[in-house]
Amino acid sequence: MKPTLLVLLLLTALPADAQVPGPPAGGTTGYFFGPSGNAELHTGFEGAWTLQWQDPRANCPCIGTLTLEADPVSGGYNGAWVRPDGTATLRGEASRDRRIMQGQYWLPDDGSGLVRHGFFRLEHPDDDTLTGSYKAENAVISFTWSAKRKK
After folding, report:
1. What is the DSSP code string of 61-116?
2. Is pLDDT larger for residue 13 or for residue 129?
3. What CATH number did the domain enclosing 90 receive?
4. Is-contact 105 76, C-beta < 8 A?
């Protein structure tokens, strides 16, 4: 049998789904929440943080407090983002090495008709620093934020 014919026969014998590539290693979002072996290097997201963020409003002081605590029931984190226009409630999940947290935030309705909830991502490069971004649900643009641990 000719080699070309043999290859064609083998390819047609494979199930169709074996020829379709699967999702990236990080899952559908591309973010991998697997272990990295560095969990002992960080104390976690828990605690009080001085937070600064970008905001589309020109009159925003954009400085507030972020407090996060571990939720023993869900294994994630609950928190509060104190802003000049209200306190947002946060809920998120952290990667196994506790360097990345993703989740959602909700602000109380202020009657403005603006979207008051959205998504966030925090990265924890060292014990005293957070960086990341947040965006309102259905928004195209995200805004950066960063925090230093309160001593």
Report:
1. --EEEEEEEE-TTTSSEEEEEEETTEEEEEEEEE-TTSSEEEEEEE----SS-S--
2. 129
3. 2.40.128.20
4. no
The answer to whether the beta carbons of residues 136 and 118 sit under 8 Å apart is yes
| Within a domain: 55 | yes
Query: Is 30 contained in some domain?
Result: no
pLDDT tens by residue, 20-46: 444 334 333 444 444 433 334 345 899
Report the alpha-carbon distance of residue 127 to residue 91 in Å, rounded.
20
pTM for this prediction: 0.67
pLDDT at 28: 39
72, part of any domain = yes
